User: Fold this.
Amino acid sequence: MQVLHTLLKKRKDDNSPLAQALYYALKGVRSSMEAALEHALKDNPDDVGIKDCQQLLADLDELLGVNGPAEDSDLTSWLRATGSSDVQANAPPSKLTQIRLNPLRDEILAQKSGLTIELGALKLREDSDAWLWRDVQLLLLRLPADQAVRWRDRARLIAEGVQCQITVHNVARFSFHTEELLFPGLEGAIQAPGLGLSPDAPLEPRVKGIFSEDMENNPELRFLAQAVSVCLGMADLDPNLHHALETVYRFDVVPFQGDQRTRFEQELLNRLQRVCQMPEVSMDALKSRLDLDEAIHSLTHMPPADRTSWWGGFRQRCRDSLFRAANRLRSQGHEVQLRAAPESFRSADELTHNNVPLKVGGATGMVLASLRIWAKLDGRVYPGRVIYRS
Assistant:
């Protein structure tokens, strides 16, 4: 155990890549064991390994806290950064606590028609108002824009009915090129942080390690670094995220946890690093941009978020950046063609391969998400890839 402490300290003190690798490997182990423990407590409460697993999680928490509070990446740091203390991350539910926002939870779960199509199976936390407010608001980021507006208004009214006020001052922010409030916080009877985007917020630490100071004057590279920061930040907060990145797991849309999360995040960071190392206007750079765009679009939900949702808009802004890069290369005389996937899978099939079928979400035969865009670069074709409703 002591050697683990010693190596992890070198992550902060000496910026050791080996210490970084150990840190994120242990995070992956912790995520996997936490999920296994939750499953055991629910389905096999007599499992003789439960106490040992709980002790293991406590030991891992101690190890992963070696760099101090600023290194936390779950709701603990979110709450700490915004001054809230309504709940501690990973704390067990309290049966004695009255959840004031339960009417909001019950109302959403009761609305089977119109919600389950867009969101799939709905699971909302029951152990804390802060968790519940966060989970509901994150769900709304996946809804069609008009439905999201209606449910945000309804959430506000229910919160006000239990002596809470909406606040835009208690808001954690991820780095992005625009100032944007994703959802507000609560104050009064419930202290719950909100979430937003800001160009003044710092990059995610791993991204900051890739994005050097000499890249600050390159707006496209900074945009991509911020987009990756948003992806990593949302992965820390949204328990319903999945991924469909082919080089990590090619056959399905899988939950974003354990080894799958660790491998996806590393691949996402590797692809960003390759883009940052390439000459900005070159064919190799555009190929690397295609790979990064695929990784960003492969961070998804089950089923994928609606095209008009916040998530849909975020992904479209990332893809617009890819088209700008293609236009710059085309202006230098290169043959560059990019084609977005049509909404009908029958039309998209000839442009794509290794596609992912789902039995939930949308209408049969429709493309639910474009993971990789079709491209033709100097005569060579690179097929696209989509998620579609089978």
Summary: The chain is about 50% helix and 15% strand.
